[in-house]
């Protein structure tokens, strides 16, 4: 349910350009929230080397890690202005391009990797069309991880446990805001990624729905001592590039960037499978920490969540998202649980 992560997730801030690109004639500038030594950062640097090899160093990348190019919304604005050629973003960032792209995160539907893959395949033509209309190419859709409710000093068993609490929400995410509105009495605290850690320390945020890997990379995980074992959603996103930037690449540069990028995402050792494995390992580490309590929801708890999620989807279909698109996501998700 949460976002962010994204897919990166991630630490302190310096601008990093990987070694070996100094001789490249054309560098694509790509922003990301990920740290250079994170799983995302490591895969991106491998992709960079592959492109340099394929193009004989005519094309390379400058990756700007650790949100040094700003928030996801800022990175999208910089792409529109020609200041960045691409970005690795969560669905919130994709929603900044076209809000319909955020619909894949409607609450309560996508809770397994099987469901993610089925829904993504079903709506890929629509999503690629929306992006193409904005002169954006998808290099690869990507994952951030399976979201759980983490909390500090109390358990989140069912929606009522969030009343009077201060969960984090991504500033430009309408989905969780709608969910908390349907629960009522919740005090969501909007913040960008780099503002979350100090807000947890100050008590402004005392719970969140987040993937274990994102929480670990961003150093949030040690701040929480309770978690709900149920996956409440899966945080997704994508790596995108400006088609104008791709079209300006010399020779077969565009072809090589897109082909190696697809392999980077979809191969057996690529970004998708690596992040899924790393996220599972991060969740195991979180559950194994001393002093952490893990709650397994009852059927009654699950029914209460389902009611809130359904009311939230109906509200989002009525105003925020295209109802036809959400219905397609619902139908596909329900058939692939």
Please specify the SSE layout and strand pairing:
Blueprint: E1 26-32, H1 39-54, E2 59-64, H2 72-80, E3 86-90, H3 91-97, H4 113-133, E4 136-151, E5 168-170, H5 174-183, E6 189-191, H6 193-201, E7 207-211, H7 212-217, E8 226-228, E9 233-242, H8 243-247, H9 253-266, H10 271-287, E10 293-295, H11 299-319, H12 323-334
Parallel strand pairs: 1-2, 1-3, 5-6, 8-10
Antiparallel strand pairs: 3-9, 4-7, 4-8, 4-9
Helix pairs in contact: 1-9, 2-3, 4-12, 5-11
Task: Describe this entry's structure for a reader.
With 337 residues, the chain is an alpha/beta fold. The protein has one domain (26-334): D-Maltodextrin-Binding Protein, domain 2 (3-Layer(aba) Sandwich), CATH 3.40.190.170. It is 44% helix and 18% strand. It has helices at residues 39-54, 72-80, 91-97, 113-133, 174-183, 193-201, 212-217, 243-247, 253-266, 271-287, 299-319, 323-334, and strands at 26-32, 59-64, 86-90, 136-151, 168-170, 189-191, 207-211, 226-228, 233-242, 293-295. The strands form two sheets. Strands 1, 2, 3, 4, 7, 8, 9 and 10 form an eight-stranded mixed sheet that branches. Strands 5-6 form a two-stranded parallel ribbon. Strand 5 (168-170), helix 5 (174-183) and strand 6 form a beta-alpha-beta unit. It is globular, with a radius of gyration of 19 Å.
